[in-house]
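I hope you will forgive my troubling you with a question about protein structure. I should value your view on which stretches of the chain appear to form regular backbone elements. Here, with my thanks, is the record as I have it:
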Amino acid sequence: MKQNPSEKVLIIGAGYAGLSAAVTFASQGYQVSVVEKHGTTGGRSRAFTENGFTFDMGPSWYWMPEVAEGFFKRHGSSIQDYFSLVRLDPSYQVVFGKNDVIELPASFSDICSLFETIEKGAGRKLEAFMQEAGYKYETAMKTYINKPGLHFSELCSKEVLQSVFKMDMLQSFSSHAKQYFTDERLLRIIEFPILFLGATADKIPAMYSMMNYADMKLGTWYPMGGMVQLAAAMTALAREKGVHFLLNTEVERLEVVDNNVTGVHTDKGFIHADIVVSGADYHHTDRELLPEKKSNYSEKYWEKRVMAPSCLLYYVGVNKQLPGLQHHNLFFEHDLRKHADAIYKTPSWPADPLFYLCCPSKTDRSVAPEGMENLFFLIPTAPGLADSPAIREQYFDRVLAETEAFCGENFRDNIVYYRSYAYRDFITDYHAFKGNAYGLANVLGQTAFLKPSIRHKKISNLFYTGQLTVPGPGVPPAILSGEMVANHILRQKSSKHEIVI
């Protein structure tokens, strides 16, 4: 039954988590306002258009499609009403060298056959590996991922305890993968999905083989028009529910009276609120928006957090079509482990960077002018590195040269649009803690109730959502995070109402 309270909910930030929370509250009749510093919604999943090119600024992989689909269904809508979703085939290609390229087909049986051609017995072993990964994925989605992370007791339920050993929380991902495969290229393909989780494969729990299930079983998809279409769809759904958006409006501080937030001060004036949910950077809200001595965590606490990578991005428009590229391309011509060490063990600019190249114009001609290509380069890096125009230019020369060599085309002189984006841009645009792009590292010490809490310890009506809290970074987790936080608050409200009655 819908509630119809007079309380006003204010969401800070219109990223996926903020949009998800806004829709969930509005579906229950709450008065909801979303304050967003940028002129468009989507947070890190914004887009921009220049010279006829439309560039997704952040996320470019559409995995776990059932999460977004389920969200729209729970709120009385259908994602198909907003955009067309297509499955990519091949899902992506991995470039180990000019003449050493592996394309991952959409069909899992075809992937098994592919693995078998590379390493005898690997097809059968992949099936066994994926059976375990599927169990972890299904168990995580049903049992772990919607927990609010408020107390250890959440992990003491019968269903959780029964799954602990099967979830492989204590074995490393690296050792787990090596039990199945020996070919270095197959190991790199298997390790790829965990590259951005915040640690090397020997430090990440084998539990995260569930990401391989999301990759190879659930598939890689693409919303026609770009990833920004998902943010646009969630925004449209929110507006249909009555959510009010205040764009180009930045929150400057939270007003706290007697351990209650009474509203927020913005660059456009004061906004009253009865409940505040911050989908902005957690550290920024905690240490910069709250009054002195009202932070949830000390600066010492934050400095001890282990961060997932930042990244160096390039948005490039080319006035010719390029052969050899797929929609998603992983250039793994160099040593993955050395690059990973430069991110996680000895933070530094990688000597021989691996990189990812997205060319959505191979699938969607609307994102580039006729006969041209839309390129999105990404180099994962350690957070907090020195960031200068010279460094950006140096690494662009590297990825451009490798791409030209692979395509067999010199296209430097055909570049008609170029923009770089890195560490200091993440801080400027999103107040990103240490310039991170992917939140906290997914290590055991920062899992579940060990993540920054969704609720403030003393301020009763202040809550947090997004990539620095549960369940973690990524588009599907962000959607789940906003919905989970809103539902937690709604349950609290419902419980208090029942007690009063």
Notes: The chain has a mean pLDDT of 94. The CA atoms of residues 338 and 493 lie 51 Å apart. The longest strand covers residues 310-318. The two ends are 16 Å apart (CA to CA).
